[in-house]
Structure formats: structure tokens, C-alpha cells
Amino acid sequence: MICKIRKWELSDAMDLAAALSNKKVQDNLRDGLPYPYTEQDGTDYISAMLSTDENETFAFAITVDGKVIGSIGIFRQGNIHRQVAELGYYIAEEYWGKGIMTEAVKQICGYVFDKSDIIRIYAEPFAYNVASCRVLEKAGFQYEGTLRSNAVKNGEVIDMKMYSLLKTEI
């Protein structure tokens, strides 16, 4: 199954809401997303992504056969980390385990390294999210270590893992 990443369109809001109105998906993401996630929430998010500085925020829909199944973004950091960016992503549960996310990660990293001055992309999945860690490893990211007691999710103190990919490595 081949995926494509593309810029968001306001018409993607319903598909986005369908992907995010799943507790299993949200359990692997940072807090702050409404649940259930509505089409209006999707419209608001897409509008925000479309109005960002395209050299600071690289935000894309993940599509399969023209249907939006998830989201992927790379977000530039500031100050001394101005050439470093954080990667975040998710896809709808029915597409898990099919290699789609690994392909989307490769696509967006190639795009950002090619179109910007970013030299390092990092990701911090929850340590319990073995599938996400595997996605990063298969996409060429290096495991750098465990960030102990680095977050509180669903009332639990949890570890996160640090992965990175350097521009010189692709």
C-alpha cells in the first residue's frame, strides 16, 4: 500500500476527524486534542496549518488512494535549535502495521531536508509505543536514549525515547 503526503485542504476535515476520534490513536499522542474529535476541530486544525510559515511548520496530510488517513508534521525549533525540528505523526488505526507510516516519515524527511536548512529531525515517542519506535528505526532514525519519567499521559508517569535523523544520513 503506497501513501502520499500532500498539503492539507479544508475538505480533509471529515477524514481527519474520523482518524482522531479513536482513543487508541489519541493514547499515543500528546494531550490537548478534543475527544471525540469533530469535523469542526479538523477544520480549525487545517486552517491553522495552512496559515503557518512554511519554513517553520511542514504539515501534511497522509493519503492512501486519495483518502486522508492521518497527519504528519515537522516543526522547527527556536534559538540555538533553529536548524533542528521535531517530527510528529499518526494514522487511523485500520492502517496500522502496513508500512504506511514508515513511508510517510521517509517522504517528509526527504522533503524537509531538501527544501530547508534543517540539519536534524528528532522524534520522542512514548516508550510503550513499540510500533512508533519501529517506524522511526525503519525510516533510518537512530535511537539516542530513553528520557526517563519525561511525560504524564492518562495519569501515568511515562518514559519517552529519543530518535534522530541527520541531513547527512540520507
TrEMBL record:
GO molecular function, one term: acyltransferase activity, transferring groups other than amino-acyl groups
Cited Pfam families: Acetyltransf_3
Domain of life: Bacteria
Signal peptide: none
TM regions (residue ranges): none
Domain N-acetyltransferase span(s) in chain numbering: 12-164
Full protein name: GCN5-related N-acetyltransferase
Organism whose genome encodes this protein: Lacrimispora saccharolytica (strain ATCC 35040 / DSM 2544 / NRCC 2533 / WM1)
